[in-house]
From TrEMBL:
It catalyses: N(2)-acetyl-L-ornithine + 2-oxoglutarate = N-acetyl-L-glutamate 5-semialdehyde + L-glutamate; N-succinyl-(2S,6S)-2,6-diaminopimelate + 2-oxoglutarate = (S)-2-succinylamino-6-oxoheptanedioate + L-glutamate. It comes from Erwinia sorbitola. Signal peptide: none annotated. It is an enzyme of class 2 (transferase). Binds 1 pyridoxal phosphate per subunit. This is Acetylornithine/succinyldiaminopimelate aminotransferase. Its cofactor is pyridoxal 5'-phosphate. Its EC number is 2.6.1.11, 2.6.1.17.
Length: 406
């Protein structure tokens, strides 16, 4: 018999890098979860844009169960059928010719940045090692990726940081052009800054980055860890913008809840990561490949991608109606089912308070900075779940606007 555990045990046994909610979810289905007490929660957080098909999707369960009876893990000295099939799905569906599999978005970005530096080195440009990223970006928590992310709060305590990384202003092409030069090996950008406040890139900005990279021989890396696998309403957001990167990173929704990531790139660039130059023990294991393959099969369908745009409208219309009544948000922005509600000046800094109030009402939401409430729900969330979740969200917002203690 399993010993009982509580939320308090987290504070006793777990390294305190997180401050999790006061409740402990124990089961879930679709976009509804239940905690240890049986209380239900509508999930607008999606495991931070991971659960693109909701919880306990029967087809994903079956894919995992079937593979679990066959082959779990061999290490990177061997390949396996599920990961080869997933690689074929990804290269067939995107600009890429090759895939490198890993376990997370941070690892995918780490691989992309290492690739950029190695390409320059292999081509005889030892001084071409600088990376241009953007303020308020988020690319992961490894030392390299947290340095590329433009949020000093996440990196300042780990100095000295990797050098040669410069940060321009997002959506400001003049700022980027001032930093991109012939010593730049890569520009890394999120098509929508997620952690930075759910800020979509302007199309002209991404087009301009493509031109600057071409001019200076730098790789353009799109971090699509959060925007990829249907979240934008296109399979990948670069398709929405019509700007093709040299390297794309993907994770989160790719595994539908099973940890996995990938770096996608072209034949010529992939050749620089030759045998022994990079690797990962768990990356590309058969369980991840089986689940990821089923995720891609289910999401990369016209009706599912079109449904993202439809659900975006459900949310925006509902949120605008709430805002008319409460006058809480200065802007509702985002792309597809990555939506940010920007608190107005009267409620600036209270996103976490709304997050806590939502949990009390039986709703899971995210924040993106101190003043943005973020939604990243399942791409197939039902209208009933959206409507019930927005009712709970309005009650939470009203509690905050009326000054109730949370």
């Amino acid at each position: 018999m399993q010993p009982s555990v509580t939320r308090e045990n987290f504070d006793q046994w777990i390294v305190p890098t997180y401050a999790p909610a006061s409740f402990v979810p124990v089961k879930a289905e679709g976009s509804t979860l239940w905690d240890q007490e049986g209380k239900s929660y509508i999930d607008f957080a999606g495991g931070i844009a991971v659960n693109a098909l909701g919880h306990a999707h029967p087809d994903l369960q079956l894919a995992l169960q079937q593979q679990a009876t066959l082959l779990w893990h061999t290490g990177n000295g061997y390949t396996n059928e599920p990961i080869l099939r997933l690689a074929k799905q990804l290269v067939d569906a995107t600009f890429a010719d090759r895939a490198f599999f890993c376990n997370s978005g941070a690892e995918a970005n780490e691989a992309a940045l290492k690739l950029a530096r190695k390409v320059a080195m292999d081509n005889g440009h030892q001084d071409k090692n600088e990376i241009v990223a953007f303020k308020n970006a988020f690319h992961g928590r490894t030392l390299f990726t947290v340095s590329a992310g433009g949020q000093p709060a996440y990196s300042k305590d780990f100095a000295p940081l990797p050098q040669g990384i410069h940060h321009a202003v997002f959506n400001d092409l003049t700022s980027a052009a001032a930093l991109i030069n012939d010593q730049t090996c890569a520009v890394i950008v999120e098509p929508v800054q997620g952690e930075g406040g759910v800020v979509p890139a302007e199309p002209a900005f991404l087009r301009g980055l493509r031109e600057l990279c071409d001019k200076h021989g730098a790789l353009l890396i799109f971090d699509e860890v959060q925007t990829g696998v249907g979240r934008s309403g296109s399979l990948y957001a670069y398709m929405h913008y019509g700007v093709t990167p040299d390297v794309l990173t993907t994770a989160k929704a790719l595994g539908g809840g099973f940890p996995m990531g990938a770096m996608l790139t072209t034949e010529n660039l992939a050749a620089h990561l030759n045998v022994g130059s990079h690797g990962t023990t768990y990356g590309g294991n058969p369980l991840a490949g089986a689940v990821g393959g089923k995720v891609m099969e289910l999401i990369n369908r016209p009706e599912v991608l079109a449904g993202v745009a439809e659900r975006h409208q459900w949310f925006v219309e509902g949120l605008n109606a709430i805002n008319q009544r409460l006058q809480l948000f200065s802007e509702i922005r985002g792309l597809g089912l990555l939506i940010g509600c920007v608190l107005n000046q009267d409620f600036s800094g209270k996103a976490k308070q709304i997050n806590l109030a939502a949990a009390q009402e039986g709703l899971m939401v995210l924040i993106a900075g101190a003043s943005v409430v973020r939604f990243a729900p399942s791409l197939i969330i039902t209208r009933q779940e959206v409507e019930e979740g927005l009712l709970r969200f309005e009650r939470a917002c009203r509690a905050v606007t009326e000054g109730a203690s949370v």
